[in-house]
């Protein structure tokens, strides 16, 4: 079954992009190694997720020379290389957490990325900080993964393959500010989830046809996979202090059925709490999204 990128950034690509093929599995999407999915405890001098929106030249990492990372709304990421474009999504918050994923490409992943798309340096990023006019992406230990310098549009964009509009510097909108607003704290008396307590498989307990059919599984390397009962989904996640949780939407099939919202809860969640074998997810306003149990 061909996977559809969610959010569907690559729909805006022109005809030549459709030859990229189907999305990889959750296993192949994970970066090498077993880095924890938590943002390290650290002081972030400045953290404003809205300030990440823009076009950024990528330096200080193994990325191709001249690459430009475009961060628009939190569901809209594009990495422009001299040979083409990778597309996906990202999330960030005011505490300095960051997570991103590539869900498709036009023309040119490297041979090493052909099976997992997301560049290794981007998969390692779990935090960020502002550094003057630049931005720095950080790994779980607080080390700089990549430095982002302000850029205009990428130098070369083939209009036969990629819509030139996708390369223009994005404009911050009120919708972006709302999506990146600080999350409400957990209700009093709840135990904030941590990366360690979140890792594992969680199954829906209400509104399912068969136990365990709808679930999410959060891996220690920062990848997650799951099902709404009919469709497989995947993405990346990161957790921090106070039960903070960010996850990308990744890719999903689109089979119509009595779909359960377990996987969409994870993407919408901004905080999480655990109690015994139960996990409760909350949105940015502090409203309960739903509950899962370990299984």
TrEMBL record:
Highest taxon of source: Bacteria
Entry keywords, A to Z: Signal
Signal peptide: 1-20
Alphabetized InterPro entries for the sequence: DUF306_Meta_HslJ, HslJ-like_sf
Residue runs in coiled coils: none
Residues covered by the DUF306 domain: 206-291
Gene3D superfamilies with a match to the protein in the record: 2.40.128.270
Pfam families tied to this protein: META
Protein name: DUF306 domain-containing protein
């Amino acid at each position: 079954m061909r996977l559809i990128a969610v959010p569907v950034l690559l729909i805006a690509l022109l005809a030549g992009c459709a030859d990229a093929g189907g999305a990889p599995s959750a296993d192949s999407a994970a970066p090498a190694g077993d880095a924890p999915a938590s943002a390290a405890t650290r002081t972030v001098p400045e953290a404003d997720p809205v300030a990440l929106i823009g076009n950024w030249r990528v330096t200080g990492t193994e990325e191709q020379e001249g690459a430009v990372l475009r961060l628009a709304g939190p569901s809209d990421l594009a990495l422009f290389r001299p040979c083409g474009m990778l597309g996906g999504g990202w999330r960030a918050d005011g505490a300095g957490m960051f997570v991103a994923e590539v869900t498709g490409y036009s023309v040119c992943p490297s041979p090493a990325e052909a099976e997992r798309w997301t560049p290794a340096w981007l998969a390692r990023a779990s935090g960020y900080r502002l550094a003057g006019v630049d931005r720095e992406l950080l790994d779980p230990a607080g080390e700089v993964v990549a430095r982002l310098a302000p850029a205009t549009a990428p130098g070369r964009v083939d209009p036969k393959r990629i819509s030139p509009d996708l390369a223009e510097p994005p404009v911050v909108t009120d919708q972006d500010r709302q999506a990146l607003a600080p999350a409400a704290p957990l209700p009093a008396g709840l135990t904030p989830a941590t990366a360690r307590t979140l890792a594992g498989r969680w199954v829906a307990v209400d509104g399912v046809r068969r136990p365990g059919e709808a679930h999410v599984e959060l891996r220690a390397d920062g990848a997650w996979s799951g099902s709404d009962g009919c469709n497989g989904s995947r993405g990346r996640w990161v957790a921090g202090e106070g039960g903070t949780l960010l996850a990308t939407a990744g890719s999903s099939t689109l089979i119509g059925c009595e779909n359960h919202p377990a996987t969409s809860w994870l993407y919408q969640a901004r905080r999480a709490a655990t109690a015994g074998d139960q996990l409760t997810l909350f949105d940015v306003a502090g409203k309960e999204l739903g509950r899962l149990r370990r299984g």
